[in-house]
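Fill in residues.
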């Protein structure tokens, strides 16, 4: 297995196509550490983390004595304003980064992924909450750039990415021309951010894709919903439309000799404007599967376009599952 790498927009960062996401990696039998070691051994050079993850301290302890820790790129998610907070907090922003530097045993955070909340948790994806966030954006951006530039001069941070959550906010972030990259949900079902790829290319911004397997839905063990245990989360009504959309993808799978996981990974990496996929890799087996599929042999552009058109058409006709149409 050979890892491939892509440059993040116009930055000097070269990231592995797979980014190690430790959000839920297992602690039993040292699976988390083994997964991280395996990923690094296979050429993964980028790690995504956040103070919000319960595994952040475990990640830090795994990195503390790792011989390659100074060769790794770090992407961290930082949120301010938090939920229901009216203003950007400079001190909190700096604290989150300083804490990450210590916890991750690194001298620099390569990419700070900023998430502006500022509304209630329920309102983030809704029209009224989204409008409020966009209204707050100019002031938040000005305050954030002030402290970010200071920390960049100190050598503690490298580049800034926006995690917009919604397409409306994403457009505003891109148009500001102040970010080096965009972070967004992107997979064979959540295709909404694909509309920004031409603009990102024009602005020479990178794109960091998160949840390429859609929280585990796009895996073979969850593909057949009827075989899931009765108490499985994916049995819930909230996932009805997602499985309906998955059925549309299955028609493409029938024509290809590959697993659903392989299809999902190769779908995302088929577009060169996608820099890296942040994947929650809980154990060495999952690392092997992800790296094996990131082999440079991806879906044809025509197939990708057919999938996106099929999904978009179905969403438009049914006004169906997507966090962006609430």
């Amino acid at each position: 297995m050979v890892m491939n790498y892509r440059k993040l927009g116009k930055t000097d960062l070269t990231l592995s196509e797979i980014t190690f996401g430790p959000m839920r990696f297992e602690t039993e039998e040292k699976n988390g550490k083994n997964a991280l070691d395996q990923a690094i051994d296979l050429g993964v050079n980028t790690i995504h983390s956040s103070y919000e993850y319960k595994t952040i301290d475990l990640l830090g302890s795994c990195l503390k004595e790792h011989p390659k820790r100074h060769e790794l790129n770090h992407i961290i998610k930082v949120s301010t304003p938090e939920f229901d907070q009216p203003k950007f907090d400079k001190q909190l922003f700096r604290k989150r980064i300083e804490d990450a530097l210590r916890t991750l045993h690194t001298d620099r955070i390569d990419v700070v992924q900023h998430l502006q909340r500022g509304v209630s948790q329920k309102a983030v994806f809704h029209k009224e909450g989204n409008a409020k966030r966009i209204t707050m954006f100019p002031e938040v951006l000005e305050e954030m750039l002030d402290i970010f530039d200071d920390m960049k001069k100190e050598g503690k941070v490298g580049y800034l990415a926006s995690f917009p959550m919604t397409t409306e906010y994403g457009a505003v972030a891109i148009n500001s021309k102040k970010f080096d990259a965009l972070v967004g949900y992107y997979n064979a079902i959540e295709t909404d951010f694909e509309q920004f790829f031409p603009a990102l290319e024009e602005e020479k911004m990178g794109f960091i894709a998160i949840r390429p397997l859609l929280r585990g839905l796009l895996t073979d063990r969850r593909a057949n919903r009827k075989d899931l245990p009765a108490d499985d989360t994916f049995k819930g009504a909230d996932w009805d439309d997602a499985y309906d959309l998955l059925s549309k993808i299955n028609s493409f799978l029938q024509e290809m000799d590959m697993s659903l996981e392989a299809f999902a990974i190769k779908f995302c990496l088929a577009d060169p404007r996608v820099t890296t996929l942040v994947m929650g890799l809980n154990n060495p087996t999952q690392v092997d599967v992800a790296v094996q599929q990131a082999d440079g042999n991806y879906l044809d552009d025509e197939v990708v376009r057919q999938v996106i058109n099929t999904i978009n058409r179905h969403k438009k006709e049914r006004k169906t599952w997507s966090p962006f149409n609430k």
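The longest helix spans residues 127-153.
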